[in-house]
Write a structure and sequence with these properties.
- The chain is globular.
- It is of the alpha/beta class.
- The strands form 5 sheets. Strands 3-1-4-5-6-7-8 form a 7-stranded mixed β-sheet, with helices on both faces. A 6-stranded parallel β-sheet has the order 10-13-14-15-18-19. The protein has a two-stranded antiparallel sheet with strand order 2-9.
- 40% of the residues lie in helices and 17% in strands.
- β5, α4 and β6 form a beta-alpha-beta unit.
């Protein structure tokens, strides 16, 4: 059969797409784990955000797919439903399957009578999707496929959940990067790819969709497989790699072994980016950080979450941010983690969440000021009520959700208020502070990738400062007016189809 797999064009606000366009790792993993006689095509629509309709139309006509699969996050739902309508218009008899965080946790949104989706692949998709293709090909029923919801006449049937894969024991095969048909993945000028070395997390942060989808667990691939995957990405042209593990620093010794294996394999000429807990970096950074830098790590996405104890309690992220000595908690780990990262000439991408239920102007300002002083690139988000997370339940009970336009659930649009501030006030504070922080990192990017930055600096600055005018740049216009223009532009950008 012919299979077309699509990821959505909707992007996060933190980086202009000219500077960062990441592939969807889940789709190439699906492609690598279906029966090899199928013809599979993977298209990341983030590479063509202004040509979505024409690209999907061309791909459907060229590939004549029997099955189209879409990977969807919550803020991408409306775009996905429009793409499904387009695909169904182009090829009425196609089977359409959806998967990812949003369909897995909000299956009812895709099981409505007015939805054109035929199947929902819940949770991890490799085995469920492969079994689904076999059932379609052989004309069998779907009732025995775990993790699948399917349309049966006017109703949807929800099969039992599939067990969480132990990934190595269950023999998930490597991704099939050769299935990609669009080009242009980049991380500040360097061709980029993604790999995973583990899945899962054992913490229970209130904002996290991972726990709701797969429970609290942590499973790993052996390091030989990981090194082979990195080498495969390199052979396909990657010179930067983002490690997409949910929490690789749960096992610091294993992470250290991975760094050494990268060095031993001669793959440390690649720029690596990884997500890390502050506690792990603070408690092990003295030896871990230099080894990471030797292995080629350049950016560390640090899950700071918040610098205030009360907010960390609400986010259920307090234990992730504890510094320990001799088995005892001795303080917040954030500053020490940042110090180790900077000392090893790596950059901190600071993950912070502001606008929590009890936040005041002063508490938000404290976090923003911390970010200005200590992090290199801001990844500051607002708490967002994604399906089935504990945070969502809390916001609903307190009546703090003020915006139900899902396309704005992108993390940088404030859709909840606090007990003391409106959503608009919270978003304005972050927006105003973040623009200056992003500009601060430009010299480091220029030094590392001079040709790319020189070619695209104006585009990146225009993205960061969109909404500005000559009057505002000269201080002759109120920043609130600039913010309102920015919000209008941001809404227009979300019209992909």
């Amino acid at each position: 059969m012919n299979i077309l797999l699509l990821s959505m064009p909707d992007s996060f606000e933190h980086m202009p797409t000219v500077g960062i366009r990441m592939p969807n790792g889940a789709l190439t993993s699906l492609a690598g784990n279906i029966d090899p006689h199928h013809q599979v095509v993977v298209a990341d629509l983030i590479l063509v955000p202004k040509r979505v309709r024409e690209t999907v139309t061309r791909l459907v006509r060229e590939t004549q797919p029997d099955v189209v699969g879409l990977s969807i996050m919550t803020f991408q739902r409306n775009t996905a439903l429009k793409i499904i309508e387009l695909v169904r218009f182009l090829k009425a008899d196609v089977h359409i399957a959806v998967g990812g965080y949003d369909p897995s946790l909000a299956v009812e949104a895709y099981a409505r009578q007015d939805s054109s989706a035929d199947f929902v692949v819940r949770g991890e998709g490799e085995f469920t999707f492969s079994e689904l293709l076999r059932a379609i090909e052989n004309g069998r029923g779907y009732s025995s496929i775990e993790g699948l919801s399917f349309r049966n006449g006017r109703e949807f049937v929800h099969n039992p959940d599939r067990h969480v894969s132990r990934i190595e024991r269950d023999e998930i095969r490597p991704p099939k990067r050769g299935a990609r048909v669009l080009k242009g993945y980049t991380l500040i000028g360097r061709p980029v790819d993604v790999i995973e070395t583990s899945r899962g997390c054992t913490y229970d942060c209130s904002f996290c969709s991972i726990i709701e989808m797969r429970g609290r667990n942590f499973y790993t691939y052996n390091l030989d497989r990981v090194i082979d995957d990195i080498r495969d990405a390199y052979d396909y042209g990657a010179r930067a790699i983002f490690i997409i593990d949910d929490n690789i620093t749960l096992d610091v010794r294993r992470f250290e072994s991975l760094c050494q294996a990268i060095v031993d394999a001669g793959l440390n000429k690649i720029d690596y980016t990884v997500q890390a807990m502050t506690s792990a970096m603070a408690n092990h950074g003295k030896t871990l950080a230099p080894l990471m830098r030797h292995a080629g790590f350049r950016y560390v996405f640090l899950g700071i979450e918040n610098i205030l104890e009360d907010d960390l309690k609400f986010l259920r992220a307090k234990s992730k941010n504890e510094e320990r000595a001799h088995g005892r908690v001795v303080g917040n780990a954030t500053l020490k983690a940042i110090e180790y990262i900077h000392r090893s000439n790596m950059y901190v991408v600071g993950g912070l969440i502001v606008g929590n239920p009890d936040d005041t102007r002063e508490s938000i300002q404290a976090n923003l000021e911390f970010a200005r002083r200590h992090i290199d690139w801001p990844y500051i988000q607002h708490p967002t009520p994604y399906p089935r997370t504990p945070m969502t339940k809390d916001f609903q009970e307190r009546g703090l959700i003020v915006n139900e336009r899902l396309e704005e659930y992108d993390g940088t649009t404030a859709v909840v208020r606090s007990e003391h501030l409106s959503a608009e006030e919270i978003e304005f504070m972050r927006w105003q502070a973040e623009r200056q922080m992003k500009t601060k990192h430009m010299p480091a990017a220029l030094f590392h990738s001079p040709a790319f930055v020189l070619r695209n600096a104006l585009k990146m600055l225009a993205h960061t400062y969109r909404g500005s005018s000559w009057k505002s740049l000269l201080g002759m216009e109120d920043q609130q007016q600039v913010f309102e223009r920015y919000r209008v532009l941001r809404r227009a950008e979300r019209a992909y189809v």
